[in-house]
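User: Please predict the structure of the protein below. I'd like the answer in structure-token form so I can feed it into my own downstream comparison script.

Assistant: Understood. Taking the following sequence of 233 residues as input:
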Amino acid sequence: MFHVKHGEAPQAPPEAAEVFGARLEDAEKYVRVLAGAGIERGLIGPKEIDRLWERHVLNSAAVAELIEDDETVVDVGSGAGLPGIPMALAKPAARIVLVEPLLRRAEFLTEVVGELGLDVTVVRGRAEEKSVRQQIGEIDAVTSRAVASLDKLARWCLPMVRDGGRMLAMKGERAEEEVVEHRRVLNSLGVVDLRVVKCGVNYLTPPATVVVARRGTRSSRTSRSARPNRSEQ
């Protein structure tokens, strides 16, 4: 159990009640854990305490707008549980899996999940590992936050996703540039719909920026690969 001192974490803003509903108290407990054990274990920088709600927890929870209640979602490189744990609190009917390769972080995530009473699975490993994919099975969406460039994320994450599923990559100001830069790579990996979406527009300034890459069905990928390229015409 985490030892949490009262007063060391910022108070929840009014928007948090609308975002987390009945799980608001758990979201507040999570913020206190981040402000305590999260900093002590080097998962959150000490300068981030005052920005835990807006920049980290609410920002992460906003991605839940792109998830349906009955979907299975994997958060790769979960670290301190961002965005996976806020998503699980905001969308409790979804099945959330946290994938983290580092032992100390995976142990932290397991403790947090137990402390908050979340029905969330923690898997230690990397998204590209076959054993991890076998353990998780077919999924509807995969999320990430500050993990890698868009092309690397696509190579790691898209093979995990079912036909028609999505990669939801949280990005910053360069999201549009990354989409332009890596569009060809993503298309070659079977992406049929690539766009930048703003989440949490009603309560975040700036909103969360998410690159949504939808994987095509087998038939659409076969159709695309069968088209002659310009050099063959």
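That's the full token string. The radius of gyration is 18 Å.
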